[in-house]
């Protein structure tokens, strides 16, 4: 894609870890980046890094579980950076409770953030997506091997992976594809599971070596 054709990117659940690394890599590729998060200091820090490196970053603040505010924030970023080539979804809720401690309403609260808000994000961004656009999601081995002490996280990661399959099937006829990247390891400051390396795997999944049609995979595992 030429610079003249290059669109922007929106990162939802933006922060200093994987999502921040994804944002920096996309900015290095020449995409204007829209960052959506809930904490101004955290999101602005990522934006400042991008700008200091010569990139373009815009910031919006919203709680993704507030559908009205989140839709407005995504639409506002789309208007500033669109068309949107990459829409990345990163948030999840970590609550250290096992199934005997976890209350049903707490599970639903966590699923609203880690799964349900993906619907809000995709629906709000749809007017800015075009043929060739990609929806990416940070997945986790917790979908298959949940830690019982954080029972809701496994439910979120399994649910969001499942939802990605449906999003892809809905958008594929318009040339828009979706993929979740299942990170089969624990994030760390060094080794194969640093945020930067996981982010690189997510961006590799955006292209999948040029895969199209039935060759496209809606789940890609990053084994490190």
TrEMBL record:
Domain of life of the source: Bacteria
Keywords: Oxidoreductase
CDD domains listed in its UniProt record: SDR_c (cd05233)
Protein's name in the database: NADP-dependent 3-hydroxy acid dehydrogenase YdfG
Family recorded in the similarity comment: Belongs to the short-chain dehydrogenases/reductases (SDR) family.
Record bears the keyword Phosphoprotein: no
Keyword Oxidoreductase: yes
Organism for this UniProt entry: Nocardioides marinquilinus
């Amino acid at each position: 894609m030429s610079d003249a054709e290059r669109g922007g990117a929106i990162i939802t659940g933006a922060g200093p870890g994987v999502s921040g690394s994804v944002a920096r890599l996309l900015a290095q590729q020449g995409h204007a980046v829209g960052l959506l998060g809930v904490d101004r200091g955290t999101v602005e820090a990522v934006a400042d890094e991008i700008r200091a490196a010569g990139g373009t970053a815009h910031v919006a603040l919203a709680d993704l579980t507030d559908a009205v505010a989140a839709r407005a924030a995504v639409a506002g970023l789309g208007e500033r950076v669109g068309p949107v080539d990459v829409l990345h979804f990163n948030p999840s809720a970590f609550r250290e409770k096992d199934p005997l401690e976890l209350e049903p309403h707490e599970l639903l609260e966590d699923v609203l953030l880690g799964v349900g808000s993906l619907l809000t994000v995709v629906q709000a961004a749809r007017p800015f997506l075009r043929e060739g656009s990609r929806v990416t999601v940070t997945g986790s081995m917790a979908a298959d091997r949940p830690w019982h002490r954080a029972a809701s996280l496994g439910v979120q990661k399994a649910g969001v992976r499942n939802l990605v399959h449906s999003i892809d099937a809905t958008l594929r006829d318009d040339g828009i594809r979706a993929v979740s990247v299942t990170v089969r390891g624990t994030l760390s400051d060094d080794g194969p599971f640093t945020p930067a390396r996981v982010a690189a795997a997510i961006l590799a999944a955006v292209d999948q070596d040029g895969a199209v049609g039935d060759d496209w995979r809606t789940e890609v595992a990053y084994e490190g």
